[in-house]
Amino acid sequence: MSDGSKEDQDVVAVILRDHRTMEDLFRRMRSVESDRAAALKELSALLVAHGEAEEAEVYGALKRFRDIDDEEVEHGTEEHAEGNEALLRLLEVEDVGSDEWDSRLEDLVQAVSHHIDEEERTILNGARENVPDERRAELGAAFQEERAKQLASGCGDIENVRKIVNR
Q1: Each residue of 28-82: pLDDT tens digit?
Q2: What percent of the chain lies above the pLDDT cut of 90?
Q3: CB contact set of 19 (below 8 Å; sequence gap of 6+)
Q4: Could you read off the pLDDT of 81-110 as tens digits, one per residue?
């Protein structure tokens, strides 16, 4: 296996790529020149698939490693819930680009950006330093498989987001 593909599988690299995509989608959603509704649809699917895959395949595994703070991992799960609630509030606004939409978008950006920042500083740095490359590659593959399954199931639809928020 070439180094390139190992890097592609590394769970830390994979998660970071998603984070950069989310930030990119936030920029598009803030821009009046772009198709904000399409960007929201893309973000909704990615945010839900990403969070669900982290919780199903990554967080539990990372808790077993020394020097990865279990409380940070639990906190990450709580922040996913907050992000999903903010996402649902935005999805419920009919008029894209209205004041209400803009205001709820900022709430969502704030919740997700805070989570991304914290997760990268605590959980992902810990994983990079303490989890062997091979295990990170296995986790990356499992994460991507679950993420793809979620995306294929239409996970970003408002009905599904509502279900996740209310569970």
Answers
A1: 999 999 999 999 999 999 999 999 999 999 999 988 887 777 888 889 999 999 9
A2: 80
A3: 116, 119, 120
A4: 999 999 999 999 999 989 999 999 999 999
Contact (Cβ atoms closer than 8 angstroms) between residue 90 and residue 101: yes
DSSP collapsed to 3 states, the chain: CCHHHHHHHCHHHHHHHHHHHHHHHHHHHHCCCCCHHHHHHHHHHHHHHHHHHHHHHHHHHHCCCCCCCHHHHHHHHHHHHHHHHHHHHHHCCCCCCCHHHHHHHHHHHHHHHHHHHHHHHHHHHHHHHHCCHHHHHHHHHHHHHHHHHHHHCCCCCHHHHHHHHCC
Token pair for 162: 């509502």
Amino acid making up residue 21: T
